[in-house]
Amino acid sequence: MKKYRNNIKLKNLKSKIISGVMWLETLLAIFMITSVLISSKDLISFIIQIFTLDAIPSYDMFQKFLSHLLLLVIALELALMLVKHTPNSVVEVMLYAIARKMLVYGSSALEIFLGVLSLAGIFFIKKYLFSEQDKKLEEKESFVQELSVDIIEETNIVSNKTAE
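Structure tokens predicted for Transporter (164 residues):
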């Protein structure tokens, strides 16, 4: 009987730890999204500088803009990865990180070639190594997201009609 109680306590402790970690991951995702929103204002200043500078400095500024933009995209994908816990979200983060490396820092032909091979490998993984169960899970999540957006839109329509 005592062993049974200890086993239940251990399961409860594991459950609380998992729940706590999930909350922390969600909190980190919120911090990342907030950071992206705050950092997005820099994109506007980059765009203004691109249009006001001469051609050569404008190219360098555009490269900085692209680097910053892709870094924000990677941060958003990381936030999704923290919340979703699917293999596809991990692959998406890797895809954007490699694309950023190629577009911003790819200086030699070898680096670009290795980046292309890496992207091809990621697409191969997505197409052939994900199980059907992973694909079905992604489809279900997508359906639930679309359904929730539809419900939100419908409630806004209803609340707008009642406000009139």
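Helices lie at 2-39, 41-52, 55-84, 87-105, 109-129, 132-163.
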